[in-house]
Amino acid sequence: MLTVANLSKQFGEQSVLRDVSFSLEQGEVLAVLGRSGCGKTTLLKILAGLEMPTAGTLLLHGQDLRPVPPNERQMVYLYQEPLLFPHLTVFENVAFGLRIRNVAKAEINQQVQELLAELDLWEHAQKAPHQLSGGQRQRVSFGRALIIRPRLLLLDEPFGNLDAQTRADMQQLFLRVSRQHQITSLFVTHDSREALTVGTRFAYLDQGQLTSFASVGEFVQDARTAIRSELAFWENIQQKLE
Ligand SMILES: Nc1ncnc2c1ncn2[C@@H]1O[C@H](COP(=O)(O)OP(=O)(O)OP(=O)(O)O)[C@@H](O)[C@H]1O
């Protein structure tokens, strides 16, 4: 469905992405783990059409994406800070993408109602964004993205500003909803636990070079992901408790 081949990006002398290649099938979630400054945001921006690659090919359903403007790519880019219209209710924020596409009113009401129920937001439908918690705002932002059935969802540390419990709840919600709607996503995070929770495929990005793993086992075994050292840490604690 999505094929990225030999993608490179230079900012002046600096090589931010080097020969990045991967492919994704419908409904897969590629979890990209990487430390700050590794080039994650640049990769997502290139996919969204907000930056142009220096070299390489990008194909979505066989179509070359490079000449396609961002608003025609049918992708949604979700950041840490949910982007909501402050003057619109939760209902209207989610409905927005359908209203501008001139979908019939009854159809909009039904779809928004169903999605808000799915996202556990129905009781907040008439509130304004400033009356919501951070996790609720992020759920509205997720609803705005899902309602237009994006071909690709790009998530850039979307739960990074949330407390640990809300973050864990959001990961479960993301899993449930993306499975149900067969959403294809690229989910970048610096948290290995989050990557393991949300991913169906796994990659590691380091200084602009992407390593894709054939299995979750290979991802866990690669020393750069630091998952083995975390497991060792917890085993050590466990031994102390015994
Ligand atoms: N428009 C730009 N012009 C010049 N350099 C840039 C530009 N955008 C990004 N960079 C550089 O590219 C590198 C990667 O940036 P990027 O934003 O992709 O990192 P990141 O992996 O998302 O990091 P973080 O997790 O800290 O946001 C950085 O060294 C950054 O300074």
UniProtKB/TrEMBL annotation:
Q: Which CDD domains match?
A: ABC_Carb_Solutes_like
Source organism's superkingdom? Bacteria
Start and end of every ABC transporter domain?
2-232
InterPro entries the UniProt entry points to: AAA+_ATPase (IPR003593), ABC_SmlMolc_Importer (IPR050093), ABC_transporter-like_ATP-bd (IPR003439), ABC_transporter-like_CS (IPR017871), ABC_transpr_FbpC (IPR015853), P-loop_NTPase (IPR027417)
The organism encoding this protein is Hymenobacter negativus
Kindly give the Gene3D superfamilies that the UniProt entry links to this protein: P-loop containing nucleotide triphosphate hydrolases (3.40.50.300)
What protein name applies here? Answer: ABC transporter ATP-binding protein
| Swiss-Prot/TrEMBL keywords | ATP-binding, Cell membrane, Ion transport, Iron, Iron transport, Membrane, Nucleotide-binding, Transport
Which PROSITE patterns does this one have? Answer: ABC_TRANSPORTER_1, ABC_TRANSPORTER_2
Q: Is Ion transport tagged as a keyword? A: yes
**Keyword field contains Nucleotide-binding:** yes
| Molecular function, one GO term | ATP binding
Any matching Pfam family: ABC_tran
